């Protein structure tokens, strides 16, 4: 489990996720943001739920994810993980249920990152072919009519 920080800056968004409950499972997405200041060179990982920012990973924890997130971004893949929002309207925390990038095996990376990109490319090819077929000129219906030109027409 990985604790998100800075939820207090997004308390309205985070507490609304609880929907009256003290604990709520959600899906979080992770995004690399540039360094926050000129003196800091470390990129940060922003955590979002339903597209809304709910906090950040600490600079140290962000280091464990930046390489994976950048590789995913290059492939057009968004990183998502299970998360739990706990608390109430006065204080709420977000906890991620995920593993650090360094703990992922090469098989997982090949399948989920590069395999997803290959599948997406294949889907794009199929979609383009279908779109092209919709623009293809169809033969007149009479050419497709099996009774046209049969012996019954001759006689």
Please tell me about this protein's structure.
It contains 5 helices and 6 strands. With 155 residues, it is of the alpha+beta class. Strands 1-6-5-2-3-4 form a 6-stranded antiparallel beta sheet. The chain is globular. The relative contact order is 0.16.
In short:
Helices cover about 35% and strands about 25% of the residues.
Give the distance, in angstroms, between the N- and C-terminal Cα atoms: 82 Å
Indicate the mean pLDDT: 79
Report the sheet-strand fraction: 25-35%
Q: Helical stretch count?
A: 5
Q: Please tell me what the overall shape is.
A: globular
Using the CA coordinates, give the radius of gyration.
25 Å
- Helix content estimate: 25-40%
Q: Count of DSSP E strands?
A: 6
Strand line-up of the largest beta sheet = 1-6-5-2-3-4
Low-pLDDT residue intervals, each spanning 5 or more residues: 135-139
Q: Topology of this protein?
A:
Blueprint: E1 2-3, H1 11-18, E2 23-33, E3 44-49, E4 52-56, H2 59-63, H3 66-75, E5 79-87, E6 92-97, H4 106-135, H5 141-144
Summarize this structure as a short list of keywords or feature phrases.
globular, 155 residues, 25% strand, 6 strands, 5 helices
């Amino acid at each position: 489990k990985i604790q998100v920080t800075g939820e207090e800056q997004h308390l309205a968004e985070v507490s609304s996720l609880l929907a009256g409950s003290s604990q709520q499972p959600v899906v979080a997405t992770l995004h690399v943001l540039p360094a926050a200041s000129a003196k800091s060179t470390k990129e940060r990982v922003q955590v979002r739920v339903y597209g809304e920012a709910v906090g950040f990973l600490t600079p140290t924890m962000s280091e464990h994810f930046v390489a994976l997130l950048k590789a995913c971004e290059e492939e057009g893949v968004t990183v998502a993980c299970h998360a739990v929002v706990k608390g109430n309207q006065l204080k709420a925390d977000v906890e991620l249920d995920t593993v650090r990038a360094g703990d992922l095996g090469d098989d997982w990376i090949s399948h989920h990152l590069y395999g997803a990109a290959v599948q997406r490319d294949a889907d794009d090819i199929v979609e383009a072919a279908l779109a092209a077929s919709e623009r293809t000129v169809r033969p007149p219906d009479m050419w497709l009519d099996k009774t046209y030109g049969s012996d019954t027409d001759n006689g």
